[in-house]
Amino acid sequence: MKPSLSFAAVLLLGASVAVSAQPLPKGTALKPPADAGAQPDVPVDLMKAVTKRLSADDFEGRAPSTAVEPKVLDYIIAQFKAAGLQPGNKGEWLQPVPTVEITGGNYTPLKVGAQSFAFGTDYVAASYRVTPKAEVRDSELVFVGYGINAPELGWNDYAGLDMKGKTAVILVNDPDYADEGEQGLFKGRRMTYYGRWTYKFEEAARQGATAALIVHDTFPAAYGWNVVNSSWTGAQYSVQKPNDGMDQTVANGWVQKPVAEAILKAAGKDLASLTKAAQTKGFKPVPLGLKVSFGFDNTIRRSTSNNVVGVLPGTTRPDEVVLYSAHWDHLGHCAPQGGKPQDGICNGAVDNADGVAAMTALAKMNAEAGPAARSQVFVALTLEESGLLGSEYYGANPIYPLDHTVGGVNMDALLPAGRARSYTQTGGDKSELGDLYLKALAARGLTDVAEDHPERGGYYRSDHFSLAKRGVPMFNVERSSDLASGGTAAGEKAAQDYTDNRYHAPADEYSDDWDWSGIAQDVELFYDLGRTLADGTMWPNWRQGDEFRAIRDKACAAATKGCNTK
Length: 566
Prior knowledge:
By secondary structure, this protein is of the alpha/beta class. It has helices at residues 44-54, 69-83, 197-206, 218-221, 225-232, 257-266, 271-278, 349-369, 389-396, 433-443, 464-468, 487-501, 517-535, 549-558, and strands at 86-87, 94-105, 110-112, 115-117, 123-126, 133-143, 149-150, 155-156, 166-171, 211-216, 236-239, 251-256, 286-312, 317-327, 332-333, 345-346, 374-381, 405-410, 422-425, 447-449, 474-475, 477-479.
């Protein structure tokens, strides 16, 4: 789920702080942590073996809910057992994840008054309601600015409005996205969760809207209409819910910016003027005096995949949990690449066989070190590539209560390259976990550097996010491109090569020639971060004003023990 990869973006971990620092001078020795003698050695040979096996051709690219899934699960369970884990789901290794696939078809044009707009070229739409047909008929259009309701910021684009029966027209990103710095109410150029399209559709549903249409604009979206079109014209996946998603909008969609301009012009409004007004606190929604109609059929397929869950029980506080996660799934069979018609398997060696291998290595290291005070839970997640669904299901149906989950570490797409001089963080200054991160870097003679492209919202695009949005602080730190050998030129070259030639392609295969030193460095850091939480008494929270702070505060206030004991 990482459509644009820099070196830093090919390994993901969960929330942190963004404290700028300069890279070490070239030639500076990289120190081990002060307590390196207490840390077990990283089992690199184990990581090689696990990555090689999970990305082998006979695992067929690890597509969920296919005939190959049981073989993949059996292998992961065997590795978890060998590493010293116990079954983590009430004596069982698996957590079933029921999902639904909905594919739209027979789309009608989107009609507003006398105007008619074509599916694909002008608009796209889908539904998360499990019904054979989605139909929006004569629904009143309301321009709701950025579609944000953020009580902690005193901001509500839906203020005073009953959205029942109405369709929300919503701007992409958040109000201060054009600012160069990060000083605005919504952190300026750095995207917040309120800027993500997922949030906008969720909030429209909470407001009772019949439908929601986001206005696509390439710069604030950070991708072109081609990306929207390809993502929204095929199957859409979601976790099965008891109510079949009937609490969602009838339809969610996108319209091209010129389409939105034409609709607003017909309403006697100007998109540019309304956009400027929507960037000011106190903006009120604007009814457009127009009605929209469109619809489509749904083909529905239900299936079940599985998360794999193991645990190392804690000693003195076993009901308090530190979570480690990595997704096991990949794309399965895919289009051949590079003139090799026989190779139509997306093996996913980097994405994310080596993340599962790193998590297995961490399990082994923690087992060798002996039990921690808190329990440590290791989850190999499914359906990340289908929209973070394995982690979404775990977050909505946690095996270990979220108000008893201290925090966690997520591993996703660790690039095989050299050790780095510095690390970076996605998401900015979000949680108190960042204090542990900076301390761990300092002990290694490493520094923290600024995140590349914070406007892309990378923090919200990997499995840690499913826990974060429910209040659980998650580490999200990444090796920077400044390698100890070769500097930024070597790091950027390695990242670009992976992005251009291997990402989501058959060429993402294991090689005996991989450089594992950087991945080993990651695992050393991950071990420190997780073990410090597991042996400590800290209950980290989000920074004041963060979009997830109120969720954690509410959960902790209602908790029995857990984070209520801090």
